[in-house]
Amino acid sequence: MRLLAADGSSPRVWRPLLEAFGDAEAVVSLPREKLESAGVDATTIARLETPDDGRIESWQRWLDESHHRLVTIDDPVFPRYLAEIADAPLALWVDGSNVEMLSYPQLAIVGSRNPTRGGSDTAETFAHYLSDRGLVITSGLAQGIDTASHIGALKGTAGTIAVLGNGPDRLYPQSNAELAAHIVEHGLVISEFPPGTPPRPYHFPKRNRIIAGLTLGTLVIEAARQSGSLITARYAGEFGREVFAVPGSIHNPLAKGCHALIRDGAKLVDDAVDVLLEIAPQLATATQPSSESARSERCVGSLTEQQPYSELLDALGFEPIGIGSLAERVGLTTAELSSMLLVLELEGLVEALPGGRYARLSQRNQ
Length: 366
Fold this sequence. Notes:
Strand content: 5-15%
Number of strands: 12
CATH topology of the largest domain: Rossmann fold
Strand order of the largest sheet: 1-2-6-5-4-3-7-8-9
Distance between the termini: 53 Å
CATH class of the largest domain: Alpha Beta
CATH architecture of the largest domain: 3-Layer(aba) Sandwich
Structural class: alpha/beta
Largest sheet: 9 strands, mixed
């Protein structure tokens, strides 16, 4: 934690040092000359040499509480999509019991803090549908579209991740305290800012880069021309991720930002399935089971020829079954299973039924 307590330098400065010297302990032990030559500023070096022990102790007290964790960039559960961006954070402060969610496929849904009723309903409906199909919905816990997205995702299977622009111990906005408690119970609340960090205006663009970096794509629902949601979308485009936007009335000022995104190349979305169709190829490769045996059996060809999918189809059968029971039958997590079922559904091999049940379709030869 000494490295995090030093602050001051961009993650871009620290990552080459971490890769060259192995771990944070080795980096903080480097002589001043090596740190200076690597671009670490004098103030940061001074903080490394005389760490703020009180600050570090307060962080440790937070970590000692249940479901609190610090996930560093070299941790196996650190999200690989986030690690790919050039200025990925050195660590994430995580509140929630299922830290593995960080590695699940995610979609960002963001938008206006003061949406129309229709915009809120769209966000909640889309988030619920996409969560039921294996996508963790990631957003910023702000009022408006963020709130509706988290609520919708909590109704689904995969759940939600809230990314904060302040420390994980300082809830903002306070009006979402109850929602945040539900997210901690059924998802994750995360931040790159350590405990004790208050919300600041300049923190939120950094927060937005985390949202975009975690996800396969960003969906914008209602955004004015100067909306912070457009910052998230811009980051997504820079990271090579998909950008989606829901159009609206030309008379609605909250549609102007979405229309601008569409003009600039974002994919127009008027149904949640549009998102699935675009990212299905990524899900087919990014959400395979994590076992070595499953990875070794991946091959080119139809899904029914790939062992993880063929075994899932065999286990599924033609009688409807709940996703929880199916997960136990095949030995996969609910999130892994939901994503694979989504791919099979888009291929016309599986049918999603009410009540979170699935059945194999009989009208195709498999």
